[in-house]
Amino acid sequence: MSDPYASRTAVHEQVTDGFGTVRVLPVDAEADAGVIHRWVSEERASFWGMTGLTERQVAEIYAHMDTLPTHHAFLVVREGEPVALLQTYEPEADRVGECYDVRPGDIGVHLLLAPAGPDGGRPGWTAGLIAVVAAYVLVGLDRRRVVVDPDVRNEKAIARFLRQGFTAGPVVVLPEVDLPDVYLPEKKAQLAFLDREILFPA
């Protein structure tokens, strides 16, 4: 089967024994809207805050994000199959920056995993993806620390991050954002942090 993403330039590519080749591709708002819309429309993705949006609205959101110098979106592709949506951002340019003391070298991450296939969950799958994402943002982008801000009710995501070596920070309330191009309701979040030295000792 041919890889529909083969012609696209990756910002990061990693081959892992037993897991295969994973590529991190900048989101193409038009080309990727269908895949992203399917994922964010599922009930399990309710914490992503995009259920109920049309595919066109999803495309517009990511087209807008592509104009921002501080927020970026990527499609994570394993062996030609899209497996996750990754968003990175500068914490000082995001509402999370109002809720903790941002350090030089911090980078914020949102990660939405694709739904499990017809065979259900696969052992080691999530750990493998998070390891690739961590390698990209910490080593590839030369950052010191990752911050994540899952909704406090999203217990599965919080547990997943803690298993991967993240340290739980405070529970905070992210303020509402109401701008012409973006609206985000107030969110109670569990902050968690991952220092580069944990995964990549000097």
TrEMBL record:
Pfam families to which the protein is assigned, alphabetical: Acetyltransf_8
Pathway this chain belongs to: Siderophore biosynthesis; mycobactin biosynthesis
* Segments forming domain Acyltransferase MbtK/IucB-like conserved: 25-73
Membrane-spanning parts: none
Top-level division of the source organism's lineage: Bacteria
Q: Which SUPFAM superfamilies match?
A: Acyl-CoA N-acyltransferases (Nat)
Tell me which PANTHER family the record gives: LYSINE N-ACYLTRANSFERASE C17G9.06C-RELATED (PTHR31438:SF1)
Physiological role: Acyltransferase required for the direct transfer of medium- to long-chain fatty acyl moieties from a carrier protein (MbtL) on to the epsilon-amino group of lysine residue in the mycobactin core.
User: Can you say what this protein is called?
Assistant: Lysine N-acyltransferase MbtK
The species this protein was found in? Streptomyces levis
